[in-house]
Task: structure prediction
Amino acid sequence: MNVFRNVVFIAAIAGLVAGVALALMQAYATVPLILKAEVYEEAGGGHHHDHAAVESAAPGDETAAPAEEEHEAWEPADGFERFAYTVLSNVVTGIGFALILVAVSELAGGIANWRHGVFWGLTGFSVFTLAPGLGLPPELPAMPAADLAARQVWWVATVLATAAGLALIAFRKSLPLALLAVVLIVAPHIVGAPQPDSFETPIPEGLHHQFVVAVTITNLLFWLVLGAVAGVVRGRVTGEAASLRDSFA
Result:
């Protein structure tokens, strides 16, 4: 029970810090691009995206955020209210990802320090942002999208396959398993992500490219902060012990 409590404590601190950091980065890097895209959306009458949902989506999963509804959904007012909701949603998301990161890393021996945490952060970025982003890049308002359920299924399958593949490469020193790992990592991209019926959009290609780059960089920094803070906090909790369990021996 004490181990579980400390995993939650580490995840809460790391998720809080990383979530606030992500919200600040979004306010500078991605929100201005979303606002520009909304101008094209209003002018062209394109497919409506809930931009509040886009900002609060799980890092790297902006494509799964919009709710495709016939009526206009409620969204927070621009300014402080919108930023506050963005911070809250990013903190909740950050804690969720931190729980996964800390729990999985404990099975592999734990995050020894902040440098080790950066390595785990890069792994999380590769699994949750980089791999699914190759098939489903982040979308701006007014951009066409495939069926939401199909995109979510492909995103989850890609995350699981990539995580399994990287685990086989990192923890199983075997050529057959290494080949299986490559197959797992590549398979979702061979199958291909769901695509919309039409790619017509009023959004300029350059604006979308800037958005993809901005989302990728902000999510990379999010994962690096998440891993590093988790490593620092875990070191404080365990002290000289090798693991969370040993810290109560």
